[in-house]
Design a protein that fits this description.
The protein contains three helices and no strands. The protein has helices spanning about 15-30, 35-50, 55-80. The chain is elongated.
């Protein structure tokens, strides 16, 4: 959830009581809050992820898929709103206005 004043997101996590106690003590020793320690850990995690070659390869694959999908959608939009040729289509058959008679 974001707070409108600051644009920050709230992240709630559940910690094992032992880990919480350790984190609380580390924060106390450093003169920080548990929140500060959590942010530092998350920032470090994100920085390490950015240099992970396997993760980067997955991100590149996803980005290429997004670009292909966008190109298809852009072409579809362009074909709707331009006067250029749109490919061959079969004209619709005329509708019958009356029922066929047995004599015809």
């Amino acid at each position: 959830m974001s707070t409108p004043e600051s644009g920050l997101k709230t992240l709630a996590i559940r910690l094992d009581p032992g880990i919480h106690a350790q984190l609380s003590f580390i924060a106390q020793l450093r003169g920080q809050t548990i929140n500060d320690e959590g942010i530092a850990a998350i920032v470090d995690h994100v920085q390490r992820a950015k240099s992970d070659p396997e993760l980067r390869a997955k991100a590149d694959t996803v980005q290429k898929e997004i670009e292909r999908d966008a190109a298809v959608k852009n072409a579809a939009i362009a074909s709707i709103f331009t006067d250029g040729p749109t490919g061959k289509t079969t004209p619709p058959r005329p509708r019958r206005t009356g029922e066929a008679t047995k004599d015809s």
